């Protein structure tokens, strides 16, 4: 029992190792592996501590019961009359001293148990703080990943906007070129149309002149003498 209690007192010092991990910035995978070991050992330590405390309680209960029985049996045994007047007082003083020693022994054991409980409580608090710090680290990594993803999306949108602006400028240039070509085609068509109208007008004038000449010849033929 004593050896088990001493091992429980020494055991929590093992858990100071995470501070060294944080101090010397050990690899994250090693920290994660060690966290799993710490959690497993902490659960094992809690189980062993609980069993040891129960054993201590049973041991104290049994020993206290045994001491009471022994005291009752001793008190029930017939005692010889003291040979002098101070014999009863001496026996009473011895019993008082024995009870005081027993009380001190129980107090010492109680302090040992309280110390072990405090150590266990500190270990639990340390484990909680360590796990909480790990959760905060994971949260920080998640925030960093989201920030990186947002920045990447923003950069992609910027590139897309730049590409759209370039495409728009190219489309405007093509539109101006097509409009210029269309204007030139309209002018050319109008020129050809004007030329065609002038040709038709000239042909129409010539046709009228020929008709007038024919008509004049017919009239002159009427006035010419017959042979």
TrEMBL record:
Give the CC-aspect GO terms. Answer: cytoplasm
Q: Using the UniProt record, give the first listed, main subcellular location.
A: cytoplasm
Q: Which InterPro entries does the record match to this protein?
A: LZTFL1
User: Could you list the residue ranges forming a coiled coil in this record?
Assistant: 89-123, 147-219
Its annotated compartments are: Cytoplasm
Q: Which keywords are on file for this protein?
A: Coiled coil, Cytoplasm
Per the record, the domain of life is Eukaryota
Biological process (GO) annotations? negative regulation of protein localization to cilium
Q: Which PANTHER family match?
A: LEUCINE ZIPPER TRANSCRIPTION FACTOR LIKE, LEUCINE ZIPPER TRANSCRIPTION FACTOR-LIKE PROTEIN 1
Briefly, what is this protein's role?
Regulates ciliary localization of the BBSome complex. Together with the BBSome complex, controls SMO ciliary trafficking and contributes to the sonic hedgehog (SHH) pathway regulation. May play a role in neurite outgrowth. May have tumor suppressor function.
Question: Subunit comment for this entry?
Answer: Self-associates. Interacts with BBS9; the interaction mediates the association of LZTL1 with the BBsome complex and regulates BBSome ciliary trafficking.
Give the family this protein belongs to, as stated in its UniProt record: Belongs to the LZTFL1 family.
The identity of this protein, by name, is Leucine zipper transcription factor-like protein 1
Q: Which organism is it from?
A: Muntiacus muntjak (Barking deer)
């Amino acid at each position: 029992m004593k050896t088990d209690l001493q091992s429980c007192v020494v055991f929590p010092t093992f858990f100071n190792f995470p501070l060294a991990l944080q101090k010397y910035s050990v690899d994250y995978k090693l920290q994660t592996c060690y966290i799993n070991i710490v959690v497993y050992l902490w659960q094992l330590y809690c189980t062993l501590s609980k069993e040891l405390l129960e054993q201590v309680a049973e041991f104290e209960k049994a020993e206290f019961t045994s001491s009471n029985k022994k005291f009752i049996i001793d008190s029930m045994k017939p005692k010889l009359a003291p040979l002098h007047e101070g014999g009863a007082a001496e026996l009473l003083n011895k019993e008082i001293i024995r009870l005081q020693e027993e009380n001190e022994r129980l107090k010492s054991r109680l302090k040992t148990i309280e110390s072990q409980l405090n150590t266990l409580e500190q270990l639990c608090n340390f484990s909680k703080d360590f796990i909480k710090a790990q959760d905060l680290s994971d949260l920080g990594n998640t925030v960093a990943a989201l920030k990186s993803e947002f920045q990447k999306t923003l950069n992609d949108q910027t590139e897309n906007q730049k590409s759209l602006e370039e495409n728009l400028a190219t489309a405007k240039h093509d539109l101006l070129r097509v409009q210029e070509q269309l204007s030139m085609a309209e002018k050319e068509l109008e020129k050809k149309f004007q030329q065609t109208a002038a040709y038709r007008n000239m042909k129409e004038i010539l046709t009228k002149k020929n008709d007038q000449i024919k008509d004049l010849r017919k009239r002159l033929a009427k006035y010419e003498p017959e042979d």
